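Thread title: Can someone regenerate the structure for this chain?

I was given the following input by a collaborator and told the matching structure tokens would be attached. They weren't. Posting the sequence so someone can regenerate them.
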Amino acid sequence: MKLQLITVFLLFVAHVSVAQVSHSWTQIPIGNADKNGFARLDKLFYKMPLGNNKDADFFLMFSTDPRINMGCTGMYWSIPFFNSRVVRLSESKYEWQSPNLGIYIFNKTKKLGKGGGTTYLLNTNGKWKLNMLRDGTIHIEDTQTVDRYYIYRKGRLVTFRDGPLSDIFKIFYNGDVLFPHSVYNQTQTKEELQFIYNKSGLLFKISLPKVHKFVYINYEDCGTHLSNPHVSSKEKLKSISSIMFIDGTKEEYRYTAEKLKKNRTILTKNGDIKEKVLVNRLESKVNNTTKGFIEWDAETGIIISDAGGDYSIRNPLLDKINTEYNAPIFKTDRLYNNRTKESKISYKKPENKYPEIWEYNSRNAVKVTQNPHTGTQTRTSYIGISGNASMKIRKIEIKARSDKNWQLSVMNTYDALGRKIRSISPNGIKEYKFIGNDKFIYFNSALIRSEHVDKKSKKLTVKLYKDADTILEYIYSEHPNYSLIHRKNNNFVYYKEYAYRWDESRIKYKELSDHSKYIYQYINGYRETLKIFPDGTKELTKYNPSINQYINIKDKNLIDKWYEKITNSNTINNNIH
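Best answer:
Regenerated them for you:
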């Protein structure tokens, strides 16, 4: 079994409209390989509520990327949330390395910022701005949403907020060092996280005061071949040997330097080559049960294999063994930004007929993936120029194993505001029209969907036109509940209301055309149902674990207490009482 298997695809630039404090598994496109071909593991230890029904993700990251500095979690490990930086690339350009590994470029404008400072705009669509104040403080703000911002002082993230409904959070550090001391919820005046270090300056305990729990971290001397240029080979290095998570799960890690060299496959434009390299190895246990391993090239950090299969990598920017390494185009990239613009990962698992492939070229804004079972490839082309439609999908093409040429799957067109206005596929043409606050979607000239946003209530109403007589109407509020109204021949059929983060099958309220009502709640995975008949009588069905079956409760007092409790919990909308 592998340490971690993730089979998702990475877009070139994450959308900045989503919270920058969220974790994205798309940064690990295949198996245990990141987009550069380095080995990577992410260990989430806390989802911190932001107050707006979103969370900030705090995780420990294992990475063999030799460019990462050794920090408070020893060799190979870091907490990406606190690596957030603003880096000056030139007089007119800054790079924002957001919490949890987003990368965004801002270009200088002629506008004056706060306090007479300098303003820079996100170069793709300008929806975010970076203000460099005269005192060196940096404010990064969402120009589309009030009160979504990140503040940096002395190169460190010190304050952030994720929108008008979010709490305000402050980060405190130990003196002038970059190691965090605590994360404080200023809105609720409560400490969310506290970081405790040992005498060697290594993080060994993370306190979660809100839930009265801890994460414990242990270290051992790291026995791998050294390749990190930021670390002296004479130093006695430490790396994480175990993590005890708040649920009691204990993960253990063992690092070794393999004595024999191993073949590594390097992908190039002119074919595959093999080189024997020194190998490092990480083995993992969870609650004393062996889970798997990862092996990587000790010199470059490129992944070679894991318990699931073997990797072949092309990254001529960072892989010195690659014959393309000294090509002028990659020399230039290393000189100016050292960021990978061309990469390919092939992952062959013994049980699959074909390797799983993930490949991208940001120069052309093209990504290619391959299905490991069928060999079918998908090529996605993005809009590579700046503007409101930057990095949105331009077209998707499919090529089966037997095909010689790519077949068009979908082609999109956008307006000047970056809104999709047409989508062409072999099945037909989908068109999008915008009138004021309304959006209408047509398929082969027939209306199939409409969307309306009420500016005052901020409610989104979505209508699905299933056929000439059937309309499904979804109503979404700013709170994470939504309702569904089903009409046929303009007659009411049923009304349903769903709860935050419940699956669609988990209805919390339903009203039928005969005016009977159903109220649901879920306790330990079992549904409790209160039926209110048109004449007002009530019937409650609950699961009884002692007899392993559902029972009907007719006691009026018990039913009234249950009904009072659930309606007072604000989980039921006022319009159902």
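The chain has two helices and 43 strands.
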